[in-house]
Structures are given as C-alpha cells and as structure tokens.
Amino acid sequence: MFGLLKKAWIPLTLVVVVALGAYAILRIRESNHHEPRAADGSGITANFNPKHITYEVSGSGGTANLNYLDENGQPHLIENALLPWSFTIVTTLPSMSANIMAQGDRD
C-alpha cells in the first residue's frame, strides 16, 4: 500500500491542486458576474441631429473640374461644372470626412 502511495502522491497532489484552482476560478467569475441593466447604456440609442454639409465653389464665371467626397466617403468627379457651384449633403453618420478639390479654367 505504501509503495503505491509513494508512486502516486505527485499525480494525486496535482489533481487536487488543479481541482481547487478550477473551483476558485469559477467562484471568482460567479461573484463578479452581473446582469446588464438598461442604465448601463446597452439600450438602443436615438438618432442624433442630422448634419448638413455644403460644398461651395465660386469663381468669376467659367467652369471647373470638381472632386468631392460623398457621405459614404466615395469620390465623385464633375467635369466642366458651371461656377458658382454648390452641393449639400445631409447625413446622420457620427463622423464624415468632407473634402473638395476644384481646378478652374481661368486665372
């Protein structure tokens, strides 16, 4: 009997330590678990005010080639647009990068 105990004491100790560690981890996780509440900000948020972005290009008559980004960030090219030119975008996206480039045909 003592011969078997001499050979098996390390694996038995390891099993006991792993079991106690797993039990402790489960107890810690259960004690820190909480149910989500509506006040935690997990609910549906209402849309915020729409943003109005207006691109404007002015000049002394003539035409211009225009490159601008729409509300989805996609580039658009308008060739030979009559000046003055303007375009308005309305979006509810939380962020939008507005960019326009114009190249005119006059000095």
From TrEMBL:
Protein origin, superkingdom: Bacteria
Places the protein is found: Cell membrane
Keyword Signal among record annotations: no
Keyword field: Cell membrane, Membrane, Transmembrane, Transmembrane helix
Main localization, broad class: membrane
Any Gene Ontology CC annotation: plasma membrane
InterPro entries per the UniProt record, alphabetical: MmpS (IPR008693), MmpS_C (IPR038468)
Record-stated family: Belongs to the MmpS family.
Descriptive protein name: MmpS family protein
Organism: Mycolicibacterium fortuitum
